[in-house]
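Replying to the earlier thread about multi-chain prediction with a worked example.

Input:
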Amino acid sequence: MSWLKVAAFTLVLVGLFVWAGAALTDASGNIRHISPGEDVSVANGDAIFWGAGKCHTCHAVGPRGTSVRGPNLGDSPVGPPIGARAAERAAERTATLGRAVSATDYLVESLSDPSAYVVSGFKDEMPVIYEPPIALTPNQLRSVVLYLQSLGGSPAVDEIELPPAALQPSRGPSLPPGAALLEGDPDRGRELFFDAAGPAACGGCHRVADEGADIGPELTNVAGTRSAGFIAESILEPAATIAGGYETWVIETADGRILDGLILRSTADSLWIARSATDEIALAQDEVARRRELETSLMPDNFAETLSVRDLSDLLAFLRTLR
Amino acid sequence: MAFGPAVAAAQQADPLTHVDNVRTFFGLSPRIVVWIVVQLHLLFAAFVVGVPWFTVAVEIIGWRKGDVRYDRLAREFAKLFTATFATTAALGGLFTFTLFGLYPRFSNYFFGIFSPIMYVYGGIFLAETAILYLYYHAWDRLQERKGLHILLGLALIVVGTSIVFIGSSMSSYMMAPTGVDETGAFVGTTWEAFTNPLLIPVVIHRLLGNLTFGGFVVGAYAAVRFLTSKTAEDRAHYDWMGYVGNFVGLMGLIPLPFAGYYLGREVYSVSPVMGNNMMGGDFSWAFIIQAMLVGLLFILGNYYLWSGMRRIPGAERYQKYIKFYIVVLIACIAVWLTPRNLPLSATEELALGGQVHPLLGALGLMSTKNAVINLIILTTFLSFLLYRRANKTDLVPVSRQGMATKGMVMLAGLVSVAILGWYAWRLFTLDPADLDLTPDRVGYFRFTGLLLVIAMGAAVASVVLTLRDRGHLAQGLYFAVVTTEAVGVLGVFGFIVTTAANPFLRQLAAGQWLILMTGLILISAIDLALFRRAKNIGGIRWGDIAERSQYALIALCVIIIMTMGMMAYVRSGLREDWHIYGVMRDTSQWAYTPSIATMTRMVGGITVTFLAAISFLFWLTNLTGRRPPRESAGDGERS
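Result:
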C-alpha cells in the first residue's frame, strides 16, 4: 500500500509540473520562430528589433521593453530617441575620426562595429549583428537601420551604406559542401513560379528582382539565407514559419464586416489590407473595431495536392538559384 | 501525394552547405530520441558521480569516530551507486550510438575535434569501473586496512570528477566553441576545445548539482524504505539515512544558486546574445518555473528539518521561531519568481499596464533576486543551527575548551578576513575602464569595498567575542552584519548600480556572495565551538518522525530530477538552432525551441522513467543483496 501511495504521490507531482508548463504556454503563447523577412522597411526593422535580431534583449525603446544592458533607444534619460540622438553622436564621431560621419553612418557603425563607440556607462559587449549567431542579412540590417532612423528621425534608405563585410554571406557551418544538387530543372521552375495560370503562381504574391508582387516576402536572395529544406517546408506548410510583417490579420469593422488579409501599411488615419496584389482595401482607422492576428498564413496550404513531385523539385531548383 | 523524398532530398543537398544530415528513428524526431537518451544517461551519471562524495565522507567519519554504524551506512550508499553503474554505462553507449546514427555529420565534425580526448575518456571509464567494483566488493576484506579502502573511495571520486570534466567540456564547447576561424573551420587544438570558457563554470555547477541530486535520491530511497519498514529498527535506520540524504542535498543546494549565477555570468561573457536569450528571451518563463522548483526544494528541505525536531528532546524550545522562517521563505520565493524581462505581446503589455508591474516590477530585478536568495540561504542555515542545538544545554565556555576548538574559530575568522580582504582589495584597485565605465564610477566600487572592510572588522570582533565566552553575541553580531550588507544594503545598492554602472553588477553580486559565505563559515565555526561538549537533554529518537516528512523527502527527489531536466533543456536550448553555437547550424526541420509545455511533458516523462528504472534497480539489489546488520534503534549519538 505504501508503494502505491508513493507512486501516486510522485505522479501527482509530475502531473502538476506538466500542468504548470501547459498553463504557462497557454498564457505566454507557444514559441513561434518567425524568420525575418527580406523587405527593406521600417516595419520589418521593427519586427527584427523585437524578434529575430534580439535587439530588445538589451535595449528598450522609451517605455517599450525593460532591458537595461544597453542604452534605451527611445526618449529616455540617455537622451532623445536614437533617430535624433544619432546626429549628436555623428558629430562626436566626425570630431574623433577626422572625417564626415552622418547620423546614418553612425547607426550603421553601431550595428556593424559596435565596439567603435560605446556609450558611457555601458559595457562593450554588443555583437556584430551580421555575424553569427544573429547573422542578419544585408536587407535585414538595412531594415533595422531604417527602424532606428524612424525613432525620432526620418527613415532614408538611400543614405544607408553597409560595410563590405556586412554584404558577405553569413558564415555557414564548416562542413564539406553539400553533395549532389537536388535534381530539378530551374528554368521550368522559373516558368512555374511566374505562370499566373499554373499550379504554383508564386509570382502573384512574391517578388524576385523586378518581377512579381509584394504580398509575400521578397525572394530575390532567398537561397542565400534559407536552406533548401526550409524553402520546401515553407511551400508545403506555409504556416510553419511566417516571415515577420507577413502575418494574417482578421479585422472587424465598426459596421460588423469581417475582413482578413495582410496589413500592407498603417497610418494614424488609415489602414490598408490585402488578400492578393489585386485585392487591396483601405479602411479609416476609426472604422476598425477590433483586429486579431491569425496563426495561419495567407499563402495557400494545399500545394501538396496541387503540385507534383516534379513541380516541387523544379521550383526548388529555381529558388536555389536565387542568391 | 508523397513529398517525403523531395523534402528529404532538399534537406540533404543544400548548396550553401547549410546542410544537416539527420536521420529519424523509425519516424520519430531524432531530437526527441537524443533528448530522452541523453537526459536519462545524465541522471544516472549524476547519481553514480555524486553519491561517492558523501559515501566516502561518511566512511571517513565512521573510521575516525570508530563507529561501525557510519561504515554500514556508507556501504549502503555504495551499494546503491554500484547497482546503477552498469545502466549508466549502457545509456552512455546508447547515447553515443544515437548521436552517430541520427546526427552523423555533426558527430563526425564534433568527435573529429574531441577524438584524442575520447581515448582518455575510455581509459578513465575503465579505471572507474575497476575502482568502483573494487571499492564496493573489497569492503569487508579491507576492514582492517581502512585507510587503503578510503583511498580507493577518493580515487573513485577523482575518476568520477574527471569524467564530469570530459563530458562537460563537450557540452560546454557546443555553447562556447574555441579554436574556430572566421569560416567556421576548426583550426585549434583539442586542448583548446577542452578548455573552452564555459568548462569550469559548467563543471562546478554539475558537481554541486550531482551532490544535491545524489543526496535527495538517497533521501527518497530511505523514505520509501522507512514507509515500507516493518520494524522499529528498520524505521530508525532509514530515518537516519533519510536525514543524511537531506543534509547532503541541502549542503549541495546552498551554494548552487551562486554556481548558477557564475555560470550565467560566464554565458553572458561568452555571448551576450545567448545570455540575454536566457534571462530575457525565450527562456525567461523557464526561469520562473525554476524559481518555483528551487523554492520548493528549500521549503521542503527546511520542512523536513523542522519535522525532524520532533524526535529531539529539548527542540520544543525553538519551535516558536519556525513560523517566522516560513514567512521569510515564502516571501523570498515570491520575490524570486517575480518576472521582469518576459517577452510580452502588445496585448499582454496592455493588459498588464506596461512591460512590468509599476510596483512589483522592481522585485524582478537581478539585485533583488540576489538579495532574496541570500536570505533564503541564511534562513535555511538558521534552521540547521536550530536543529543542531535542539537537544543541547549546559554549554562549556569556549575559554575552557582546548586549543583545537579555539584554533578552529580563529582559523575560520582568518579565512573570512582573507576572503573579504582579498575581494575588497580587488574592488579598491578595479579600473573602471576594465568594465567600460568612466573614472567617476569608481565610487560604486569603493562603497562595496568599504562594506567588505566593515564585514572584516565584524569578523575579527566576532572571533574575539567568542574567545571571551560571548559566542552567542558574536554569532548575532556577524549574522546581523552579513544580513544587513548582503541582503539589505547591497540589495538596494544594486538598484542604483543597475542604472548608473550596470557592468559592475556582477562584481557587486560576487561581493554579496562572499560576505554570505564568510557568514556561513564563521558562524558555523562559532556554533561548533559553543556547543562542543555541551550536555545532551536526551538522545535523538530516530524513527520517531511523521510519515508526511518522508513524503517531503520523496518530493525533494522528484523536484530535483525535474529541475535538472529543465535546466538541461535551457542549457541546450540556449544554442537555439546551432549545434555548435555560431559555427554549425542545425537546418533540419527539428531546429526549433520547444515550448515550455513540450519541455514539461518531456521532462515529466523522463522523470517517471528514471524513477521507475532506478526503483527497479534498487529493488533488484535488495532482492539479491544481504542487508547489512544494524544496531538497535533509538540511539542518540548519530547526528
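Chain B has two domains: 30-343+362-394+534-624, 395-533.

Feel free to reuse this layout for your own posts.
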